[in-house]
């Protein structure tokens, strides 16, 4: 399964002293084809269709490396299982944040109000950086609550 970012990924691996292995290629291919937030088990089931010899341990080990390399992002939404998605620069999605339903665990991506958020966050980051002498490299915004279906139940 070859992805659209294959050449870039090859360069990323070489630059970090790693090889692009079949499991890594398959994981990135699965991630590239989805708009969902996938668990390691979801990724395992999808990769297993194309690469039946792969094990769940291999998936976990490679996901951690891909997170370390910032090719994918790991989210802990408080559901007991981490979820993963491609980093913004490799994804079909634009920069976005999340709404997480505390009852049904659905995750909604949103990119509304980004212009206002970016201005606010830049000011906030600048102030925090100065006050704490801290270099901020990225941020994560997640809102927790109840989706419209769960509100009605």
Which helices and strands occur, and which strands form pairs?
Elements: H1 6-15, H2 22-32, H3 40-50, H4 56-68, E1 72-75, E2 83-86, E3 97-101, E4 107-110, H5 114-132, E5 142-145, H6 148-152
Helix pairs in contact: 2-3, 3-4
Explain what the structure shows.
- This protein has helices at residues 6-15, 22-32, 40-50, 56-68, 114-132, 148-152, and strands at 72-75, 83-86, 97-101, 107-110, 142-145.
- With 153 residues, it is of the alpha+beta class.
- A three-stranded mixed sheet has the order 4-3-5, with no helix packed on it. It has a two-stranded antiparallel ribbon with strand order 1-2.
- Strand 3 and strand 4 form a beta hairpin.
- Helix 2 (22-32) packs across helix 3 and helix 3 packs across helix 4 (56-68).
- The protein is globular.
Class by alpha and beta content: alpha+beta
Helix content: 40-55%
Order of H and E elements: HHHHEEEEHEH
Number of helical regions = 6
- Stretches where pLDDT is under 50 for at least 5 consecutive residues are none
Q: Radius of gyration in whole Å, from Cα?
A: 17 Å
CATH architecture of the largest domain: Orthogonal Bundle
Beta-strand percentage range: 5-15%
Distance between the termini: 42 Å
Largest sheet composition: 3 strands, mixed
CATH superfamily of the largest domain: Winged helix-like DNA-binding domain superfamily/Winged helix DNA-binding domain
| Average pLDDT level | 86
């Amino acid at each position: 399964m070859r992805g659209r970012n294959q050449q870039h990924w090859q360069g990323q691996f070489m630059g970090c002293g790693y090889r692009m292995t079949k499991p890594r290629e398959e994981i990135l291919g699965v991630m590239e084809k989805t708009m969902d937030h996938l668990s390691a088990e979801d990724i395992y089931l999808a990769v297993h269709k194309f690469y039946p010899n792969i094990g769940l341990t291999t998936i976990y080990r490679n996901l951690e490396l891909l997170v370390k390399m910032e090719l994918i992002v790991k989210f802990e939404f408080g559901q007991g299982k981490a979820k993963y998605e491609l980093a913004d620069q490799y994804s079909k999605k634009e920069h976005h944040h999340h709404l997480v339903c505390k009852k049904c665990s659905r995750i909604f991506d949103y990119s509304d109000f980004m212009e206002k958020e970016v201005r606010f966050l830049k000011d906030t980051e600048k102030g925090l950086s100065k006050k704490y002498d801290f270099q901020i490299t990225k941020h994560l915004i997640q809102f927790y609550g109840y989706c419209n279906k769960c509100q009605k139940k």
